[in-house]
Structures are given as structure tokens and as C-alpha cells.
Prior knowledge:
alpha+beta; Nucleotidyltransferase, domain 5; CATH 3.30.1330.30; about 20% strand
Amino acid sequence: MSIDIPTAEDFAELTQHRHAASVSLYAASSGADDARAPIGRNPEQVQLALRAAARDAVGRLPDTVPAEDRERIMAEVAALEEDRGFWSTPARSVAVFVSPGGLRAFRLLNHLRDHASVGDRFDTGPLIRSTTFAHSGFVLALTKGSVRLLALEADDSCHEIELPDLPEDLGLELEVADNEGRMDRQRADGAQRPKAQRRDYCSRVQDSVLRRINGSAHPLVLAASPDLEPAYREVNTYRRLVDESLGVNPASMSLRDLAARGREVLDRHYAAQLAAWRERFGTQRAHGRASAKLHEIAKAATAGQVDVLLFDLAAEREGTIDEFGEVTVADEPSAETYGLADEVAARVLRTGGTVKAVRSGDLPDGARIAATFRSPA
């Protein structure tokens, strides 16, 4: 699989890292013909952008960082450029975290803006936000002759994810099985073989889809022809398949129409989830087990007491949080500060909590951050 889904252990390692020469790089595919094209189609373009960003970032490191550390960083980036297996990917963005001690890189389906930062820790904020944004998701359009997988992104854009391991004639055997070679009339004997063929067909499709999205925290909306929807749901093993489907045959629908209908389903799905969470939040806050105050949440997150954290995707306040959870808000960003919401989210992820980046209207009482606790604060 050439998409990397960060695990809780990955976030723990990245967010606990400390070194004066820590460089974080985000680079995305782009092009005049298709700004969402997979990196694998033109890896040189992203490699050049990454190399330039690394050179610029190294130039911004403190004067106290020795020359050999700077050289190690550039050598690590150069080694990543030479890794052909890494660049053969349907990903739209890469996130690279590098210091003199080594490099970690992730290939992401999301299309993130180019960004580079330096400091004594890695800037994992864009990575956390992209992988926990509550309104992202996938749509699978499935018919006998066509399989399309769409990614719906945070900026309301979408792109199709290639499924190159599916043979072009995958639907041919199913078509023949359903008609037993007779294209002029339907089977009337109720035999089970067509049902088994449909399950096999859906299983092969699912295997291909899972190789692209398994491990993701985002839901999948199904848009299937009436004969294939029950078969796909029967074989499905993806935990986040949404109960509601598009309810239409996607055969003649454009990608834009599929995306629009898919977002309607996702919005209803998330609205129900978030409404239920806000209700629990209100109940638990009355018993001292929830808060919408940053300083209380930061202390709880540091102590490993946050169960579920929601924060505004557009939150921009920077500052520092010490080892006891005490928050200091900065007047302006600097190399010593970082996103406060991102840091709280990182601490929640390190201690096994759930994090969701949401739109401001999804939070209770006009707050920018809110959390439920495992025990009273």
C-alpha cells in the first residue's frame, strides 16, 4: 500500500521528538492540467519542491546548529528522493519530518498546502488536522462495468483515487454469470450462483479499495447499483462504511454529482454524530467531566484524562504548554511557539484519546475547543 496512515504510535514518536534542528516539510502535487493529480504521475515536480523547501528550511536553522547537522538533514532528504518505491504512489501530498537523527515521511491522500517550518520540535499540526478532519470522506461508485473511488477533502474539493490493481474486464464475468450467457432474458430459477458471483465481484473491489483507505479515520459512502449494494454490504469489513447510501445507480453520474450527493450523506452522518456528542458533552460538563476552556483541557490532556477532543480546524492561537499542562499564549508566532490546539491534540493522541478537527459551528457554545474527560477534572 502506497498511502501512509499515521498511527497513534507515529504521532507519539513525532510529537515527543526534540532537537534544535527539527525540520517539517509538506509538499503537494500540482499542475496546470490537474492540481489533484497523484504524485506518482510526476514525482519529479514534488521532489524539486521538497528539495527547495528543505534547503530554505536549513538556511533558517539557528546559527548554533553545526554544519554537519545541516548536511545530514539534506542528505536524508536526498536519500528520500532516490527511493523510487516511495514516489510510486496515488498520494496527493507528502509530509516529511527530518532532523540529524533521521527522517520520517508520510504519503497522504489529502491535498495539503506547501509548508516548511523549523524549530526544536516537528510541526505535526497539518498532519493531525488532515487526518482527523470530521468532514472528509470517501465515495465508492460501484456498478458491473465501473468502479470509481472518490476522496472528498477538507476544502470541499474532490479527486478520484486510482484503483490500478482492478482488471479492466472485471465486470465481464459477472455480466455473463447474471445472464448465464443469455443477454436477452433474465434468470428465473432463483439459483444462487449469480449471488455468489456478485459477492466475489464485490470482494475483489473491496480488496482494492482497502489497499487505498484501510486505516483511515474517514467514512465511506456507498453508491451502488441495486443488485450490488446488498452484496457489497455483505462482504464489507471497513468499519466506517456509512449506513446511508446514495440510493441511486451511479452509472451515469459525473464525479461532481457523486461528490455533491456524497457530501450530503456525509453531512447528515456527521451532524448526527456531532449532535449526539454535544448532548453528551452538556451532560458530562454538568458533572465536571467536560470543558470548553483551553487551560482546563490542556491540563487534562497532559494527565491523559481526555477521552474525546474536538477543536476548530481554523484555530490559529500559538504559544507553549509546559509539562504540567500550563498554557502560555504568545503575542505572535515564533520558532519557539506552536499551535496550542495542535499541541493539545497531540497529547490526546499520545494517551489514546480521540481527536476530531471540526468546523467552528460544530463546537458547543461558540467555543474553539471542547473535550470530554475520562474522570472528573
